Amino acid sequence: MKIRKFFRYVLLILAVGGLIMTGVRLFTLVRGPSEVRRMRREEIVQKEEGYLEYYFSLLSEDEKRGYRELLSGVRSRKEKFYLTISGDSQVDRVYHAVLKDHPEIFWIHNRKQVYKTVYAGGNYCQFSPEYSYNEEEAELIIDSMEQAYQDVLSLVPEGAGDYEKVQTVYTYIIDNTDYVSSEDDQSIAGVFWKKGAVCAGYAGAVQYLLERLGIPCIYVEGSSSESEEGHAWNLVLLDGEYYYVDATNGDQPDFLEGDAVLIAEHKTTIYDYLCPFPEEYEINYIPSSEFSVPECTAREKNFYVKNGACFDTYDREKIYELCRLRLDNGAAVVRFKFANQDAFQAAYEDLVEYDRMEEVARYYMDIYGLDQVSYHYGILENLKTMYFMF
Predict the structure, then answer these.
(1) Which of 198, 200, 234, 273 meets the CB 3.0–4.6 Å disulfide criterion with 246?
(2) pLDDT value at position 252?
(3) Quick one: which of 317, 307, 383, 376 has its CA closest to 344?
(4) Which residues pair with 125 in a beta bridge?
(5) 24-33, 37-46, 315-324, 338-347: which has the minimum mean pLDDT?
(6) What are the tens digits of pLDDT across the range 260-310?
């Protein structure tokens, strides 16, 4: 009778913010169990209705099989389950692809430990995730997700196109979320349940709502040139072109400069990060090298371009004309953008440093019969935009 020796060693795979450090639990086995052999014979589902699954499309066939297995196990909240892949880089890549493609599985994506048991010679592993929420909490979060979707549906204008839907989601997330760090900040649970998250939660929430509205949306992780911390944002497909959408940066009420200390009286949505110019956005944000992402080149859906408020040169009278038009339509905030640094700098010197917005202020006073008015300004220099609030 032969006695087979078994060897094993144990290391922890720790998941933080969706990233895992590789380690294994190794067992010596000659053949995989019948369940694994059966899994290898199953057809790989290439497309799941309702999801873009962009990162799935970048995987090899073996990784795609592992993706479906991992997604199924997590959805069923299994304590452990087999994957027909075992390599450290393969499992990491598949795990990250699932998280990026499926923000709705919020219960696995919030600083919980993930274990992997590898069997020597078997080319398969056992995956053991830990879940962030119990079933009762998960049901509350799912209810809050559904309520958010119904809220957005009620806000989308009848007959709205894809751009209007994206704008509605962008505004909704900003209006209903505070940028805060917490135990729930890395997933959509923070946004929809606790009303607070960081960039990972914002980007996941945008993706979740837009996919339910039928708009292709990609979750992107990367780095910021202005911070050592990572950042997350979205790419959305509009009329065949990809655009950046960054609701986190759109939710920045402290952007105002000068004497603009009364922003609460002039609350306005910052649309600068709704389809920003690619070359301006890419100065500050670089996607992770783990996966390639589509290139953004289009500018037509930029908020300022669509609203006739983007200028190639500085002409004071054209700015005044735009401001008068906005004020005539009841606006208390006027904003505009410049397509190049020279035009922006000329406008800044004239309108801010020399305070040439007085004429627009007088026009505002005439409209409302006022004896005086105070106004504030805000500058987003990296995007070459200006805000004036009356």
Answers:
(1) 273
(2) 75
(3) 383
(4) 83, 118
(5) 24-33
(6) 544 455 567 899 999 999 999 999 999 999 999 999 999 999 999 999 999
What distance in Å separates the CA atoms of residue 28 and residue 263, rounded to the nearest whole number? 65
Residue-level pLDDT at 120: 77
Q: Hey, what are 175's tokens?
A: 């209006």
232-261 b/e (C-beta count within 10 Å ≥ 16 → b): bbbbbbbeebbbbbbbbbbbeeeebeeebe
Q: Tokens for 349?
A: 């010197």
- What secondary structure, in 3-state letters, does the chain show? CCCCCCCCCECCCEEECCEECCCCEEEECCCCCHHHHHHHHCCCCCCCCCCCCCCHHHCCHHHHHHHHHHHHHHHCCCCCEEECCCCHHHHHHHHHHHHHHCCCCHHHCCCCEEEEEEEECCCCEEEEECCCCCHHHHHHHHHHHHHHHHHHHHHCCCCCCHHHHHHHHHHHHHHCCEECCCCCCCCHHHHHCCCEECHHHHHHHHHHHHHHCCCCEEEEEEEECCCCCEEEEEEEEECCEEEEECHHHHCCHHHECCCCCCHHHHCCCCHHHECCCHHHHCCCEEECCCCCCCCCCCCCCCHHHHCCCEECCCCHHHHHHHHHHHHHCCCCEEEEEECCHHHHHHHHHHHHHCCCCHHHHHHHHHHHCCCCCCCEEEEEHHHCEEEEEC
pLDDT averaged over every residue in the chain:
88
Whole-number pLDDT of residue 390: 83
